[in-house]
Amino acid sequence: MKHSSFFWFVLPSTVLMLLFIAMPIVSVVTQSFYTAHEQVILEVENCGPFGCTQETSVDQEATAALREAEPLGKFAGFDIYTDRNHLAFGEVAAAWVKSDGLPDFGSSLMNLPFYKALGFTLTYTAIVTPLTIVLGFIVAIAVNAVAKSLRGPTIFFSLLPMIVTPLVGSLILFWMVDARGILGTGLQWLADDPNLSVKASTGLMWIMLMVYGVWHAAPFAFVVFYAGLQTVNTDTLESAMVDGATRWERIRYVVVPHLMPLVTFVALIQLMDNFRVFEPIISFQASAHATSLSYAIFNDLGGETRLLSSAAATSVLTIIGIGILLSPVLVRTWRDFNR
Amino acid sequence: MARLQLKNVNKRWGSFVGVDNFDLDIADQEFLVLLGPSGCGKSTTMRMIAGLEDVTDGEILFDGKVVNDLEPKDRDISMVFQSYGLYPNLTVYENIRFPLKVRKVPKEKHDDMVMNAVRMTELEDFMHRRPADLSGGQRQRVALGRAIVRKPTVFLMDEPLSNLDAKLRVSTRAQIKNLQSKLKTTTVYVTHDQIEAMTLADRVVVMNAGKIQQVGTPTDIYDTPANTFVASFIGSPAMNLVEGLLKDGVFEGENIRVEGLPTGPSGNITLGFRAEDAEIVDGAGQIEAPMYSIELLGEASMITWRLGGALVSIKTNKEYRAEIGDVVRARIPAEICHLFDTATGERVAL
Amino acid sequence: MSSIATKQTPTVKILANGFLIMWLIVAAFPFLWTLWGSFKVEGDFFSKANWANALFGTLTQSETGGSFTGAGYYGAWVQEEFWRAVMNTTIVCVCVVTISLTFGTLGGYALARSTYRYAFWFLLFALMFRAMPPITLVSGYLLPFFEWNLWGRLSTTIIVLVALNQPFTLWMLHSFFKNIPQDLDESAMVDGCTRFQAFRHVIIPVMWPGVITTGLFSFLLAYNDFAVTSMLLSKENQTMIPKIASFLGTTQTKGNVMFAVSAVVSATAPLFVMVMFFQRQIVSGLTAGAVKG
Question: Which of A264, A298, B100, B286 has the fewest CB atoms within 10 Å, measured from its CB?
Fold first, then answer.
């Protein structure tokens, strides 16, 4: 395709992506170096019969004018990155000195908002991704084993948890595990503890969020693997059989290697999606026990005082995290391409 | 009607050279075949003529006019693609009419022109079907019909027969030859099948690794291959090639000794001869070696030896009988031999 | 395909079937349960006394006289004006899908046909953009949108969603267009079309399966979005998902949760129907990227 026609064809998409993805990234990075203006303070000297007193008051007009003139705020350098709500160098150093042993240090880290969010995000990503792949794989193998007539309905119901809006899907689960809901009651009965509540326990909350994550994402892995299973070379399967491979050996040596590229694909997509875990935390009202990077940004942005700079700094840190997460893939693609 | 010139045409992708210094004049009304193995640059050359691929270097001229920067639509060509490129949503009739429609040929002329093409390609019975309902051969004819409906200055055909089965290929080949002689349109035809090349071409261009190996009439190429590549590519079976030493007109290799060759050249030489030119003898022969295999071809039998690294085959009558491992002799007269420089592969002038 | 190699022994069959039934319960039961429960009163849906009340609607019976009640739906749709949110969602989804597909088909087609290196880089950048959590970008939108008075409008949200959709749409359509033989547009160009005419006359008629599949996913992205819609829309322009979230935020007066439950069921219903009709396309869409990647 000629350069000029390529240019015109991709122009609309490119403009949109530059304006609304690339520019915001720049804007976020810039914003993260500025902080909101402090209020302009007026000092007025009131001299009365008993001498003079200094009185301070907020000059609302001047403050508004200043904020109007420089909406970005004033330059703060890396201050926002290092403050308590983000990388918190000072607090981390203090915790390091004070703590006895790594577990103690870890738990004091988890009291800092950024590390709390990062800790949950990473744990969530690291646990949900492999579980999704395993569950998806087992479901795919099982669906492949049942009669053809059952496959359609099975696929239909399997798709639901994935298709449904994350916020809505997690709400549905949340209501069920509520202490007064069916699953919550079931859990209480299982644990033989009538006061057991997912809402009250950090551990249970983490587990529930991850259960939701697997429930939501497994269908995707399942569909991809199921499609992959349809293309397994029957000749290879049959020759493995003739060579004397058992059922498990056939899965191990023929099916699994055939699906490996798909595993990589699913893992990549899942890493990206799990790293941005967000909606279930809202639905589960879990912020006391678990927050994620996305949630931290959302929290800063929402509410009466929009902490734009703080959100921007967390965003930048998140983007850096994504970059690190994706770097092996990018390096590999780069190498493949140059070969 | 057009004369086509390619002047030192190059195609490179980064450091990869697809077509290397292609230089050729194609005469008006000529049927030219580009022949070579896959990846040799023959399709790329044709696509550059069509304007579907940019020319990195050099010039392409139609009737003396440089067309490098012209869009395909402005080159007045028509093309038959390997997988035909039929429009699946249009009927046969509409497929053939498409070029007229987009080129704004006056509407009232359409029916005559389309029907003419339909008759020439014998598609009368399928005019209102869609491509999906046609057999491979019929689709191929639709593609041909679409190419001839307008009278373009150049026909381009990119392996048009390779998706057909063997039998259909022979009949369609004849049809293409017949059509071209009627229409007298300059034609460039790309194929990897040397039989197609030999049967259709006025001239054949043999290509390998982006370079022209030899240009000539089919007879030229068959009788005097310019190098070992052409020799091993043309003919069925391909020419036998044996490496050895030539000295004072005597060629010597493993289990082969040919005398009476020209005394001029000497050194490492590859000796070539065609299977049908040599014969099996009972007495003394130039080849004397245990037989590797014998295959009955139908009208003849093929005897094969292993001489050094090479398999050498000779045709003999179908009644000939021998067991694998028996010593069999063959007569290779000096006049049927071709000599090639082993190092360069180039033909050594006799 | 029923060769011996793919045949199953009875034990394997029983295991597979048993496992699948369990999975299906896990996958589908929550939806059925919530659908059933949405017609009860809160006291049944969240029953302190007995979980089975939600099944039989004991309190619903005593409170309303029937074992089913539409009170939650009435409250959500009429009292809380959920219908407004539904209208907004419809507008947003229709616009996002249309614009995404229009831009995406053009770009995806060019990417599939270009042999140059920059097409690869373009796709790689798109992939990186795809990895950005939308919420990180939202923090970049807010300030300029406030400044230029663009915040809160449906149109702004639509454009933003289209942009966020583009990387995915481009990837998917690119792989669909790769499957359309290049011979097709090339013969059109030889027959006398410009590149754009070839696209219009020859590619558009055959691209619909891929476009429909991609459209479904664009629709899902727009429909399911929470991060962008909740931050960029003013209260009166809210779409369904942020509206549902706002039900949760308001003080937990009695029955309010049931508004949320019925709104959740209302929001799930279209998706349910969509999966029913387009199951095949969804499956093919999910695998389109994978089989080639």
Answer: A264
